[in-house]
Amino acid sequence: MSVVTQAEPAAAENNAAPAREWRPPSYWPFVIPALVVVLAVIVFPWVFTIWMSMQEWKVGSPTVFVGLANYLRLPTDPRFVEAVGHTLSYTALSVVLPLVFGTLAAVVFHQKFAARGFLRGIFIMPMMATPVAIALVWTMMFHPQLGVLNYLLSLVGLPPQLWVFSPTTVIPSLVLVETWQWTPLVMLIVLGGLAAIPTEPYESAQIDGANFWQVFRFITLPLIMPFLFIAGMIRMIDAVKSFDIIFAITQGGPGSASETINVYLYSVAFVYYDLGYGSAIAVVFFLLIVALAALLLYLRKRLLWTSELGDGA
Q1: Sign of CA pseudo-dihedral 38, 44, 45, 46
Q2: Whether the Cβ atoms of residue 245 and residue 178 lie closer than 8 Å to each other
Q3: Are 264 and 83 in contact (CB under 8 A)?
Q4: What is the distance of C-alpha 297 from the center of its chain?
Q5: What residues contact residue 304 under an 8 Å CB cut-off, 6+ apart?
Q6: Residue 59 φ/ψ, nearest 5 degrees
Q7: How far apart are CA 58 and CA 66, in angstroms?
Q8: Where does the record place a coiled coil (predicted)?
Q9: Distance between CA atoms of 207 and 203, rounded to whole angstroms?
Q10: Contact at 8 Å (CB) between 50 and 280?
Q11: Run of H or E residues at 56
Q12: Residue 79 in contact with residue 261, Cβ under 8 Å?
């Protein structure tokens, strides 16, 4: 009797559950256009680039499948190895210097003084100009005989420099342009972080007699560190793929002294018309950007974990 009693509710429940037929989601008509755009604009170009990187393909010649031969060629290509070194040094300087000067400018402009808003507007003007216009102006300023930079050096008794016309000074000179243009961006990001800091820690430090450096070192800097990481990641991604400033000023010269991966990629693909090898460089270049971004994210998490551990101790 008990078996029948237990089986009856189960059978009744099965009979009560209506048979549901599968129906396509009603939101598909709205999703399909977005999927088509993503596939056409992002997925297909990268799949096609990877396919081209496995071909020996020069303009006007048929494609020949070579597998990983283009990738194996990269470590033995001296110009590519040199371009990697130029890219890393250019990126490192173009990240560190704007972070330092942008943070300093943010601390200064965070203070209250007369005409602060007007001076902020003047300071952020470089990032509003187009890169090619900036390159043309700085090219004239870098001229060894007619440039204003050597004239300014002569006023303080320093010898003239060749700037972008010398292999030893071309990378620092290009970094000078990058720093001048993008320091205001870092300043704006750090200013947002400074505005979000409460005033209580500063009031306590003032009561304890802390000086300006101690306040900055132990209060301001730790609290704006997340904003510095955001600014550093934005600058890193932008600097590592920088092309317009470098190409407009030096075209990778003198010789190949300022030839970064991006400039070398342009030369291989659109000067020598070696699309297969250029595609392999593009894939490796993309992986380098992803690796650098992942490194910054790892450092950010590691620093956050260390600070939380220190607070807990």
Answers
A1: positive
A2: yes
A3: yes
A4: 12
A5: none
A6: -60, 130
A7: 13
A8: none
A9: 6
A10: no
A11: strand 55-56
A12: no
What would the two tokens of residue 230 be? 């955001």
Q: In a 3-state reduction of DSSP, which class is residue 274?
A: strand
H helices present in the chain, as ranges: 2-16, 28-38, 44-53, 69-73, 78-110, 116-123, 131-141, 148-155, 170-196, 200-208, 212-215, 221-240, 244-249, 261-270, 275-312
Residue in 211, 230, 201, 200 with CA at minimum distance from that of residue 297: 230
Phi (first) and psi of residue 76, to 5 degrees: -95, 0
Q: How many residues does the chain have?
A: 313
DSSP class of residue 58 equals B
In sequence order, which residues have a C-beta less than 8 Å from that of residue 310 and are 6 or more positions away?
none
Q: Is 113 helix (H, G, I), strand (E, B) or coil?
A: coil
Which two structure tokens, joined as six digits, stand for 122? 């003047």
User: Between residues 4 and 170, which one has the greater pLDDT?
Assistant: 170
Residue 159 φ/ψ region, left for φ over 0, alpha for ψ in the -120 to 50 degree band, beta for the rest:
beta
Amino acid identity of residue 91, one-letter, is T
pLDDT at 8: 52
**Above 70 in pLDDT, residue 308?**
no
Q: What is the mean pLDDT of the chain?
A: 86
If you search the block for the tokens 């939380």, which residue do you land on? 308
As given in the structure block, the two tokens for residue 93 are 């300087």
Distance separating alpha carbons of residues 171 and 140, to the nearest angstrom: 17
Q: 57 and 276 in contact (C-beta within 8 Å)?
A: yes
* Cβ neighbours of residue 79 closer than 8 Å, sequence gap 6 or more: 256, 259, 264
Measured in degrees and rounded to the nearest 5, phi and psi for residue 55 equal -120, 150
Both tokens of residue 217? 């070192």
Contact 197, 223 (CB under 8 A): yes
For residues 107-116, give the mean pLDDT.
88
d(CA 239, CA 107): 24
Q: Which of 147-161, 163-177, 228-242, 293-307 has the lowest mean pLDDT?
A: 293-307
